Amino acid sequence: MTYYADLTPYAYDRDWAADATRLWQGAPVVNVGRLDRGRPYEQGVVPSELAAVLNRMRHTHRTRQTRGFHFCPLCPSPTSGSYASHPYGSAEIWVRGSDVAFAAPELIAHYVEAHAYLPPAAFVQAVLATA
Questions:
Q1: Among 11, 31, 91, which Cα is nearest to 57's?
Q2: Cα 68 to the chain's mean position, in Å?
Q3: pTM score of the predicted model
Q4: Is the pLDDT of residue 28 over 70?
Q5: What is the DSSP string of 70-111?
Q6: What mean pLDDT comes out for the span 63-70?
Q7: Where exactly are the structural domains of the chain?
Q8: Is there a contact between 72 and 113 (Cβ–Cβ < 8 Å)?
Q9: Between the CA of residue 17 and those of 20, 28, 61, 74, 89, what are the distances in Å?
Q10: φ and ψ of 60, to 5 deg
């Protein structure tokens, strides 16, 4: 997966970002949760229901499904035979905030649960507003 700092303009697919901005009625699209090994990220305590809501959103807000998948870059690399139990993702979760749209990898729920990732407050608020 490609690393992007939180709240930077979405650039994973520029054509899709332009279309998405039109779909979100002009709201800019920003990255959240595009973590990578060796890169620092915010850690902390999140509202107890955040991971559960993000896991539900993997089904209700899932978009940009890819043909392949990527493993969690923060977990130890899978070994032969352990791939089925290693966290992986192949899509994004998009959610509208008050003045921006957030694009996150579907692994974001895993990052929150297993790696103490603390997403930006505006993203947390937008996610919890969907519950």
A1: 91
A2: 16
A3: 0.86
A4: yes
A5: EE-SSSPPPPTT-GGGS-EE--EEEEE-SS-EEEEETTHHHH
A6: 68
A7: 14-78+85-129
A8: no
A9: 5, 8, 16, 26, 20
A10: -95, -25
